[in-house]
Amino acid sequence: MKAPLSWIKEYVDLPAEVTTEQLTDRLTDLGLKLEAIHSAADGITGPLVVGKVLTMDPEPQKNGKTINWCTVDVGDANGTGEPQGIVCGAHNFAPGDLVVVILPGGVLPGNFEISARKTYGHLSAGMICSARELGLGEDHDGIIVLPADAGAPGTDAFDVLGLREEVIEFEINPDRAYGLSLRGIAREAALGFDGTTYRDPALRATPAADAAGYPVVVDDAAGCPVFVARTVTGFDPAALTPAWLAERITHAGMRPISLAVDITNYVMLETGRPIHGYDLDKLQGTIRVRRASEGERMTTLDGAERTLSAEDLVVTDDSGIIGLGGVMGGETTEMSDVTTNILVEAAHWDATSMFRTGKRHKISSEAGKRNERGVDPTICEAAADRVVELLVELGGGTVAPGVTVVGTPPAAPSVRIDYDLPARISGIAIDSETVVADLQAIGASVDADADGITVTPPPWRPDITDPFDLVEEVVRIVGYDQVPSVLPREAAGRGLTRPQRLRRRIGRTLAGAGCVEVVSFPFVGPASFDALGLPADDVRRKTVLLANPLSAEEPAYTTTLLPGVLKAAARNIGRGAPGVALFETGTVAFPVDRGPAPIYGVDRRPDVAELDKLYEALPRQPLHLAVVLAGERERAGWWGSGREAGWSDAIGLVRRLGEELGVTVEPRRAVLMPWHPGRCAELTVGEVVLGHAGELHPQVCAGLGLPARSAALEIDLDQLMDLATVVVPGPSFSSFPVAKEDVALVVDADVPSASVEAALREGAGDLLESVRLFDVYTGEQIGEGRKSLAFALRFRATDRTLTEGEAGAARDAAVARAAEVVGAVQR
Amino acid sequence: MQPEEVDAARDAALAAIAAATDLDDLKRVRTEHAGDRSPLALANREIGALPPQARKEAGQRVGQARGAVNQALAARQEVLDAEQAERILVEETVDVTLTTDRVPAGARHPITTGSELIADIFVAMGWEVAEGPVIEAEWLNFDALNLGPDHPARTMQDTFWTASPDGAGVESGVVLRTHTSPVQARTMLTRTPPIYVVCPGRVFRTDEYDATHSPMFHQVEGLAIDEGISMAHLKGTLDHFASQLFGEGITTRFRPSYFPFTEPSAEVDLRCFVCKGEDAATCRTCRGEGWIEWGGCGVVNPRVLTACGVDADRYTGFAFGMGIDRTLMFRHGLSDLRALFEGDIRFTTAFGTEL
Description:
CATH class of the largest domain in chain A: Alpha Beta
Distance between the termini of chain A: 90 Å
Shape of chain B: rod-shaped
Radius of gyration of chain B: 43 Å
CATH topology of the largest domain in chain B: BirA Bifunctional Protein, domain 2
Strand content of chain B: 15-25%
CATH architecture of the largest domain in chain B: 2-Layer Sandwich
Largest sheet of chain A: 8 strands, mixed
Largest sheet of chain B: 7 strands, mixed
Shape of chain A: elongated
Distance between the termini of chain B: 87 Å
Strand order of the largest sheet of chain B: 1-4-5-9-8-7-6
Strand content of chain A: 25-35%
CATH class of the largest domain in chain B: Alpha Beta
Oligomer: heterodimer
Number of helices of chain B: 12
CATH superfamily of the largest domain in chain B: Bira Bifunctional Protein, Domain 2
Number of strands of chain B: 9
Radius of gyration of chain A: 41 Å
CATH architecture of the largest domain in chain A: 2-Layer Sandwich
């Protein structure tokens, strides 16, 4: 809401010493938040002066246009006192008229610098200005012709045009709809400064309703509790909007259109009450307000044809629908540039209905904005009367007899509060007298008794319905800055939960291993999955879809974190990083197909079954971890060569996390895109599959711009954390000497080393302390399709030093078992 | 051997030992003067053939000479050993300024570590950290928080709606949460007061992506429900939070505002931690205001308590919320929000593993 300062001051006598900043600070403290203070002259630099047109010679041009070569008296403003020669394209003025001239050196809005320049064969030294060129309105047809008494030639035109006006822009919260009017803003200003006088522009004597008014029937009193109609005849459609009125509505952010429309807008800004004007001669018979029938159609005055819902309120006459009540008028009865007889409608509409209709038809108008937030229902007669007054005064109309008033304003429900509620809720010591006085100050009627206060909010405050609403009113007047700073009593908290602690541990472990965390958007589309090479029936392609995605290409919430991390890795590589290790943790979503989630009432807590139904309707959202390792993993240096990331880095990281959490993670060969079919492992803990790791498929690397042999992993962290050891049992170990035995076993190339190792463990018995693969060898000596695996076995007893014979026997038993299970032959 | 010859052999040995310059030299000297075929060894062997009287005298003389030589050998050996050890250490000197960055450093994201830092401030006060799903029930994101279907404020939040699994036309009742407030609702629905929880997390709004807006960002909200809770406790908590995150003496101020879930509601401003309000005119952090807009807060609307099963006659509460991304932006002087979501390792590694 933009409010010209002079307009505010019309209704409130602020102390002379109060500056604009002090006023806006005070209003911000009261809840009307300052957005900006504008000057009407923003973007204009002088010299901008009053000029008197001396001569005006029309000169037809080859392009068919006629320009006027003018001489203009600008007094001494040009430094010489000589007439100024200016070329002007407009024709709506004559010699002798006073106009607004910007001289060379001046600047108009849009950083339009004025200089003397050759044009149409003349040296044009300046410009005669239109309202639009000065940023005062959209009217470009003609230049501004000032009243004859505007000032002598050469007079500074900033004051003449009201350009010194300060315009305060407020951010109006939904609960302060009264702030969408000068009436409301001025009232708050008066509240902010003790002892100031406030004049309510909606407080005026209005003629009583009579039977002579235009016939109006309201079928839906809940939707339209009050409908006031007044008529003005003999209005001069050619009458121009006076400059002061045009300036004010322009400053307030609205566009001057025609006098009659401008007046309705002016009164809306003044009082907050939207007004609609009809061309009386186009109305046919009784005006009727009713709900529309489903599917009924009408054309609103913006030219849009609309199909209505049974919830929409419409205004009709014998011809059919003539307006979408409170939201937008209809095309057929719209006022035009020949309208002489006007019916003024000031009606109060149900706010919820206005909100729904505006949302349904996607209409956002100044009237709708006010009607849907709630307008004072008691000022319809006053607002209509004010419009009638201005139509008569400025447009030469005559007040037609008859005043129609249908319905009565709904009464504001009273609210009961305890005297101490504001103090208890705010923590400020506020006595009963202050509570009563502050509530009266906002215009409420207060009935105080021994036990508490019954408050009837003023009619312009439909937002006040609850005791806590009244608390806010009292506290904002007492001052939010009075709230003391007190810490609540100490709570006996239980600290971080186990998953919260484990997540931190996982992040630190990965960072410690050289991985950098990224945060990506979770939006994906078919192309994201195509880039991963996922087959058409891959479960990861079944996504939760968004109804209103930002991009049609990425309409889904992701099922995998890989698209995000891979994209970030490619970006880093593209920016010159020789290698990159990235990780991301985040939830992904899998649809559950259980139908829509229910919407419950809010008057009570939903019961357990209802809540379960709500929770079950939500997608499954497990926490995932994804890592990508691309390019250089270890750098080359004086120590020797570097090392590229590979499949084993990815698998190794998951095993590392397992160690950190006390979980033994076992990899198993698997085939799954986007991984290389021969270099992918599924990572298991017992029968639980955590996820996958390995080298990315060469086509995926090539497609995404990643180095060949980049590796990646993705696992379900919720599952890993569930498996984490809660209490680590204290280890016991022997201090007797270790006996070391190395064995080299030849097996078929496709036998997993893990199987050989498992057989060795099984055969070695209790004396085995550890077994570790330390070499893999293939070559001619071993034979085609075979490989040699070298294991280091360590034996130790808890109660004695092992003899050579004991260790050798255990080794032989281990080898024998390996021979039996996987056909291993000792080399 | 004559006594003079013994003395001469001894002196020659001692001279040779003293002249030995390295361990090899000393080894040669040892063989020559103390070995089996050295003059003193030969003299020792001759002693057995001497008459008893002369044997004793010669024995003493040769014995002393050999003792002196062995002692000198040992002493010289020790000196030369030490010299060699010293020399090896000198030879092994390296250039300690060589690079050591074999495995590049990793880092955690500042949103993660920032959220943890904030959570820890509250955990230290006895609060707990509550979490909930990002894809959330409409009822929990809006209705339970006094944002009914026709509430004008509902249009203030540009919400991502999920498509109905049943196909077009039916509303799914499921949204990408627009704030972390549904976590507060979930907490109230499952726990009984006193409740002191802080809820950091990821939220979504349909904002176009630019330097200061993002369709995905992060919020931290706090909720306290207890007997006798007032705005004063809210102010005390936020002042403490501000001073912990931005330094001793940094406080907050309230301005009236509107949120459906709180009444009274306030905007909370943070005292500029750079200029402290004293030199605001030239301050780039608060742009001349002396205060930084930080978030929203207020007393929990009793309607919210009722919908979430909290006895509104017995308990009151306060709630607050602010953007984590935005807080990081002004705390660390970041000019473009997008740096947080781009994944450039140069950005993230600058923050290390803890904030």
